[in-house]
Design brief:
mainly beta, 10-stranded antiparallel beta sheet, 2 helices, 28 strands
Length: about 400
């Protein structure tokens, strides 16, 4: 089966360099080129289940502890980033959502971050310590997966008053360095830093007085009765905590846990491949009037001038280059885990690149790369088979940088 998906350029954030979304020294006007003192980083936050924007989310960039808040369209810009910044993380928090953390990397002198797809928090169930209880939650990001179930026995919780327990299943796209170039490539056997593809966030966190049981979906079919390691995240690190037993269906496994912590099975998809360079693409110019003053209507491989910074020299532009993402040899469920649900794919990657452009230096262009890879199945850090292939065609902004970018606090 071959699935062809069209979406816009990813990672979500436009590359931010000294001249792309950069805060520059100096004031307005003047013909000299002031020195660049800080950088900025922009991206978007969406609801992973339906692709709608998440407004009012708090963004924290570290190192630096710089913050921003998403607007009504889920977009944000973090300003004041040091020009010495090379790598770090963006943490996103929003009411009624599970916290999300994305890597920020330096690529060709620009900062790049993947957009955040936030998972809604699960339903809270009040469990009385004296009797215990079970919390079951479907995986809203991928309803084809079995639900997650957490059973807490009588006496495992401290106290006599009911405790609100929430389980929130989270689906993470594979850590591959091919599909999501802002994520560190995972090496086979490297389980310490791995984030399971399917995991569950549990609140409140803490030790149990006696062991409970948790049943988690598997990213692919395994032999019934097989043992697979499960992981828990504590103090920011994922580590193996024991073994989970695959049930008779082969699509879920049950483990015994002594602490309520983020938990995941040590099995995931991984994409490995190679990159080739394709001919550059020149974008066509559109007018704001032609797209009814709505950047959402900007066609593929087009750009608009949204603001003139210096007549005849420098302008702020918005550009769109839609990429292709092709999968073959995967089941529908596996395809969804490799690149997310349809709405999530489109919203996560359907972004504009923005930045000042030197109007006198030539056309707006994109460098184009094609990434071709194999989707592998990984269990306990080891390859257990291949399940299909993936081809991604991407564009990287290459419009001429302005030689006179005295735009002050331009965003």
């Amino acid at each position: 089966m071959r699935t062809v998906l069209r979406h816009s350029l990813g990672p979500i954030a436009a590359a931010c360099t000294a001249a792309l979304l950069a805060g520059c020294g100096g004031g307005g006007g003047g013909g000299s080129t002031p020195s660049v003192t800080t950088l900025s980083l922009s991206s978007q936050v969406i609801n992973s289940t339906d692709g709608t924007p998440v407004s009012g989310a708090t963004i924290t960039l570290n190192p630096g502890n710089l913050t921003a808040t998403t607007d009504a369209t889920g977009n944000y810009t973090v300003n004041g980033i040091s020009t010495s910044f090379t790598s770090g993380t963006v943490t996103v928090k929003a009411p009624n959502f599970v916290d999300d953390t994305e890597a920020v990397t330096l690529v060709s002198s620009g900062l790049v971050v993947n957009g955040s797809a936030m998972t809604p928090a699960g339903t809270t169930v009040n469990i009385t310590p004296a009797t215990g209880g079970t919390v079951t939650q479907p995986v809203v990001e991928d309803p084809t997966l079995p639900p997650i179930s957490l059973t807490i026995p009588a006496g495992a919780l401290t106290g006599s008053s009911p405790v609100g327990v929430t389980v929130s299943p989270v689906v993470s796209l594979p850590d591959d360095g091919l599909v999501d170039s802002g994520v560190t490539v995972l090496k086979v056997g490297d389980t310490v830093t791995h984030r399971p593809e399917i995991r569950v966030q549990i609140t409140p966190e803490g030790p149990l007085n006696s062991t409970g049981q948790i049943t988690l979906p598997l990213p692919f079919h395994m032999d019934p009765g097989a043992q697979v390691p499960f992981m828990q995240k504590k103090n920011g690190t994922w580590t193996e905590k024991g073994m989970a037993t695959v049930d008779s269906t082969g699509f879920k496994a049950t483990a015994t846990i002594s602490e309520l912590l983020p938990t995941g099975i040590e099995a995931w998809h991984k994409v490995t491949g190679s990159k080739t360079t394709l001919p550059d693409v020149t974008l066509s110019e559109s007018t704001l009037a032609s797209i009814h003053n709505s950047l959402d209507q900007l066609p593929d491989r087009n750009y608009v001038v949204t603001k003139t910074i210096k007549a005849g020299s420098t302008a702020e532009i918005a550009a769109r280059f839609k990429a292709t993402f092709q999968l073959s040899g995967l089941t529908d469920g596996e395809a969804g885990l490799v690149e997310g649900r349809g709405n999530r794919k489109l919203a996560r990657l359907d972004q504009l690149n923005r930045g000042p452009w030197n109007m006198a230096a030539g056309p707006v262009k994109y460098h184009v790369i094609q990434l071709t890879g194999t989707v592998q199945r990984i269990v306990a850090g080891h390859v257990v088979g291949s399940t299909g292939s993936v081809t991604v065609t991407r564009g990287i902004p290459a419009w001429p940088l302005p030689t006179d970018h005295n735009q002050g606090n331009l965003n």
